[in-house]
Structures are given as structure tokens and as C-alpha cells.
Amino acid sequence: MRLTKLFSLNLITLALFGSATGAIAADFGVQQANTEHLKTANYQCKRCVATDGYSGTFGASVGAVDADDDHAVNQLGTGTDGAIAGANADLAYQQSGYRAKVQAHQLGMDNGFINVEAGKSEQYKLDLDFQTITSNQYSNAQTNLWHNNGVLLPSEHTRELNLDLQRQRSGIGFEYDFSALTQLGLSSYARFDREDKTGHRSASLMSPSPVNFAEPVDETTDKFSAGIIADGDNWVSELSYHGSRYENNIDNLSLPHSYDVYSATPDNQAHQVSLSGQYRMASSVFSGRVVSGRMIQDQDLVQMSGNPIQNWDGQVDTFSSNLAASTRVSSRLRLGASYDYSKRNNRSSVFDFAQYEFDSMSGAFKQNTPMDIERQTFKANASYRLASGYRLQAGYDYKQVERSYGEREETQDSEVWSKLNIRAIDKLTLDFGLSYGSRGGSDYQANELTSDETDSLMRKYHLADRNRTEVNARASYTPLEWLTFDVSTYYANDDYDATEIGLTQAKDYGYDANVHLQVSKPLSVYAFAGQQWIDSDQSGDQNSIWHTEIRDQFINLGLGTSYSGLMEDRLTLGMDYLFANSESNTGVSPSGAGSYGAYYSYSHSMSLYGQYMISPQMALKLAYQYERYFDTDSAKVTADSNSGLITLGEINHNYNAHQLMLTFSYKLL
Residues of the signal sequence (predicted)? Predict the structure, then answer.
């Protein structure tokens, strides 16, 4: 059983702050300027005036959906046929330093949210939020197994259900600023979030032949964070705690004739404490961070013959640190460097297990081996202004990873890169990038702790020797005030030159192009196009030579326009269109070695809308959205295509979906 990691804990980014202080002979500060004869009334910032009272807009949306497939929820926001309704708001209130804000979008629909904030400026803030997220994997999946109180019951008749997930996220946060009570800046924060996820997803088990079934989902994830931030004139520091707890409300699944045939995702928890800080001198910035964490899993194990262990007693300790510095050597040159260190120490229990080989017991005993990992990363970079509008950047990155009891215990990645930014040409900006990287390391071997049956020539792509070359370029051109072009392209090549079995080469290249036209004050038009190609080559075993070529390609096209000059500028019309296509083909040579089928999908989506201003405060918007979606995957087969395989059916998509929405909004003046 593996320890499950179900948390993602990010430190709050520390922004650059403060300015250098020191004694100077004369004060040229703006506060010393002579403003006696200035007519300041003519220089008031009309947009900067904070209006007391209420402001913003609120409204409601009603409409209808006609969709052949609930998969349309991923594009339209709601996929259920019939009437729909939701609330929208973007309101603010301010009075005597007190502020409040309410934001809501399609609240009451399958995908909607509301966020409420209230507090007093530079003292405290309270925020509450709630969000619903619905996603659909497949509709009308066919199954002969029906879940009931932890048992998958066979059914005489094929049943259909949707493989979709519903998430409900809620959270509360509080911030308090102690600066008014202390001599230095001191603030704190605390936040709690909960996500409840229910529905079904595809899963498979062996009993004794392969069985695909709809796994029920009912799980809860809690996250908590708290911290204290202190800052001075030229420094800032933070002490924080982040924690998470995952609970699976559905236990192991059983069949009527066999118990615990499918192990449930185990409950687990994670904790992390971090201390970070930053100090700024006249021309240099120094920052550092230390993080200590622990992940715990103590779930009961599925009991089987020969396994006397009741629970796993899993524990993984983590530690990471970072040091970074950046200094301005001159008006042209800036240097920077950073060092990162992280270690993952698996302190889970170790037990003796009876050793099975090729379905027979050898009589020998072996222990499970907790695997640790240690990473060190060093980066150095320089930025030099060649001339006005020309800047050259270059850097070197080095990463060393040590793994215990793996096929390759040590790897080293090195990369050199450079960038050239040009801003000197009128109406044109150019960016160029070039990088080269290589990976090597200790001897690669498939040892007995990983797999006795792994071929000695096989290489896993994330551990194998690799040389990587990448180039990219970007241009932005504004020949006229109303016309803008943006074009970017890239090419990357990965060469696994020491691999005989496994991935030998991979290429990734593509482009993106955008154009925007402000034809007139009321009329604007945009268009974009992008393509990506990924080509991979893989070699087979040496006893029966075969070669695989995988060709993936993607394309996105878009066009849109809006016109706001109709009916005395009361009516705005708009249109947006998007086409997306993806295709994957796998060819095997010689052809007698077998071949894989293709995956292909495309989507047309279009939105038409018109908004009419009834008055300066009230507006009506009518919007129509359409999606045409199709995909086919040869890996999905009908339930009766193979007598030894139970599937969820041929659950590809082929549908049309329509959504009509009428929205009324009211603006507070």
C-alpha cells in the first residue's frame, strides 16, 4: 500500500518592498515641492475618488438547456436539460473606513460561486465563500454492477449512469493587522476550507478477469492555514502553518462472493510549518525559506492470507529550504543566484512479507523498503542591458536527485539558457530564447528491490540519460493604433541517446498567433490560431524488435467581434467562435507486432449575445451558446465485445448542446 499525498501547500509569495534609507545633504522629496501657486483643482483624479455608500451591479439569469449529453456541462456550465436560474452580483459598500464586497456568478447553477468580504481598512477583514463545481467524464455508462452499502451487486439488466463529480467548496478566512498596536508592521491570517466531492468515476479490478465499473465517490478534504507576518522598513518575515485532512466516506468495495476486492483510497493527513523572510539593501535583495512537514496515513489494510498486519502506520517527513539573492552591480548589470534543498524521509513501518514468485511461494521472506528522495538545485543568472531597448539574459541551472533503492540512485540535470529582449524598434517588441540541457547520473540497473523481471536494457524516461534543446521566439507588432499582432513559436527536442528499450526521442513544437482590430470606436474584432505537435519514438524489447511512433497534434482557432453603436449606443451585439481539434495516432512497425487505434476529438462552440441598456442603471442581456462535440477512442469498447472483459460500454461522445440565457442587471449609482 502506498502513502497517498493529497495536499498542495503553497507559501504566500513575498513581494519586493521598501526603499533604501540614508542621510543626504539636501531633500529633493516631493513633499518639499513648492505648490503654492498650483491650481490643484484641475489635477484631481476623478477615478481615484472613493465614493462612500453602495456601488456595483446585481441581477439574475434565467434560461433553458437542450443537450444530448451531460458532458456539455464542462463547456456550458450546466448540462441538465430544462430550465436554469442563477444570481449574479458585484457589489461594494464603503463608509468611514469600513468596506464590504459581494461577488456572485451563476449562483444556483451547476457551476457558480459567491464570495463575501467585510472589514475595516488596515485593521481586519473577514471573508466567506461558497462554490459548486460539476464536471462530467462520460454519460450513460453501462454497468452490470450496482453499489449498495459497500457491495457491488451484479444486475440481470444493464444499467446506465453518468460518470460525473459534484464538488461543493466552502471557506472562511480572517485577517487582522496589529500595526496600529505595535511599533513594527505585524499582521496575521487564518483560513479554513472544506471540499465535499460526490458522484461516480471509472475504475477497474481483477475478479478474476478484468472488470470496469463505476466507482462511487463520497470524500471530504479539509484545509487549514494560519500565519503571522512581520515587516519593517526594509525587511519582511512570515511564520505559517498549513494542514490538510482527507477522509474517504466509502470503505473498501466487495462482491457478493468475495470481500474487499477493491481497496478504498485511505484517509490521511498532512502538516507543514514554514518560516520565510526577505531583506532588502540599497541594491540587493536576499530571501530565505525553511519548511518542515509530515504526512501521516494510519488506515486499516485489506486483510488477506499471509498478511498479519492490521494497519500500515505510514509516515513521511519532509524538509526543504531555499536561499536566494539578487543584486544590481551597475545600471546595466544585475546578478542573481538561488539554492534549494529538499528531502523526503519515509519513516513508514517495515514488515516481513512472504515472497511470491510467479504465483508460487518460495518460502523466503522480504521486507518492504521505504524509499527516500533528496534534491538539491542551484541556479545562477545574469541580466545585462546592452543598449537602450536591448537586454540580454543568461543562466545556468543544476539539479541533483538521490533516490534510495531505485533503478537509478542518482541523477544530475544541467541546463544553460539565454534570452534576448528587444524594445528599441518602434511599435515592435521581440523576445528570443535558447536553452540546452543534459541529464546523466549513476549506473542504471533494474535491481531486485524494483523488479526481477525488468529488462536490463529498459530505461524509464524520467531517469534515463537525456539531451534537451529548446528554442522559442515571440513578436508583438502594432503598425497602427487600431491594429495589433502577436506571434510566438517554439521547438523542443528530447534525445534519449543511451536508451535501447523505452522512449528514444520526443519532439514538441508549435505556434500561436493573435490579431486584434479596433476598427472603430464601437467595433472591435479579434482572431487567434494555434497548433501543437508532439512526436515520440519508442523502441521495444531486443528479442522481438518493434518500434512505435506516436503522433499527437492539436489545433485551436477562434474568432470574435463586438459592436456597441446601435440604437443610440444602447445596444451591444457580440459573437465568439472557437474550434478545437486533437488527434493521436500510434503506429507500430513491423505491422505484425500489433497496432493501437487512434484517438480523435473536435469541438465547435459559438456564443451570440446582445445587451440592451434600458436606462443608465438597468440592462438586459440575451445570450445563446452552442456546442458540437465529438470524440472517439479505440480503447473504449462495447460491453459485449469481449467475453472475458466487463466494460462500461462504448462511452464516446457525439452530441449537440444549446443554451439560451436571459440576464437582467441593475447598477447602483
Answer: 1-25
